Amino acid sequence: MANCWIVAFVVFASINVSLSVREMEYSTPQSCKELKEKFKVNEDGLYYLSTPNGVVYQTYCDMTTAGGGWTLVASVHENNMYGKCTTGDRWSSQQGGSPQVPEGDGSWSNTVTFGTAEAATSDDFKNPGYYDIAAEDVAVWHVPNNERVDRWKLTSFLRYHTENSFLRSYGRNLYNLFKRFPVKYNVGSCPANHGPSVPVVYDVGDATSNLNLYPPNIRPYSEPGFITFRAINTERAAMAICSGLKPKTCNTEHFCIGGGGHFPEESPRQCGDFTAFDWSGYGTNVGWSASKQVTEAAVLIFYR
């Protein structure tokens, strides 16, 4: 066990953390916040953490933004806007858009993990921290697809975080929040059954630039400066996260990500991890389409 931790504890090349074998055996960090506070690690990068049950996994730690201690737990990456709810749409459905599978893959509220931290901007990623870490706040980064991990901060064009400890009221992580607010077709109606909208603080970008990434047709009906969970559209399809926006419209499929297994309107045209971002053309940022910049970027989700 000791030799395993000597090799695995820190893997980011530019960091050298000296910990005794006894410290590593009995004080295994379970979050980046613990790694920072207990072991005084202050550099961003890839580290190994452990679940309470001893499952070891690698993830990225942001040790510098807003006090640091942010653990990457997930990324949502649209691998193919034209493949609606097909292979790779792990945060919506890989089984097509069917009312018989109303929750799709159910990744927002299950313990299935996938992907790797290092490839989080090239593929979907979910680690055990998503459901095991007891957190208070979330942070979100929008990073261009296929960026190497050492360039994430440099190339990110939008980063924001919550700072009101809202997760205390929802089970301390998104796994538990989405148990309370299932991302599932026909679970409720718009706007009565939306989940919480939480104010955010911008670390890169601002409310105006955030809003302008999304379709012109939704801008008068969306309030930037929030992150919204479990938004439901007119046809009762559920989306998981509206990144940086509070919807004042029921056309949430054009700016929210993730979703249940069925989108009734011209199904499966709205289906997929980035739902209907391309409704008025891919990356056109006209009508009901999002910008190419946000369409071709992964959404990285952190806990602290």
Quickly list its features.
disordered N terminus; four-stranded antiparallel beta sheet; alpha+beta; 8 helices; 304 residues; eight-stranded antiparallel beta sheet; globular
Helical content stands at 10-25%
Distance between the termini: 28 Å
The helix tally amounts to 8
Quote the beta fraction.
15-25%
Q: Rg to the nearest angstrom?
A: 19 Å
Overall geometric form: globular
The beta-strand count equals 14
Order of helices and strands: HHHEEEEHEHEHEEHEEEEEHE
Largest sheet: 8 strands, antiparallel
Describe what you observe in this structure.
The structure is a single chain. With 304 residues, this protein is an alpha+beta fold. The protein has helices at residues 2-8, 21-26, 32-39, 129-132, 152-155, 174-180, 207-212, 292-295; strands spanning 45-50, 56-62, 70-76, 125-126, 138-144, 158-161, 197-199, 201-204, 222-224, 226-232, 238-242, 245-247, 256-257, 297-303. The model is unreliable at 1-25 (pLDDT under 50).
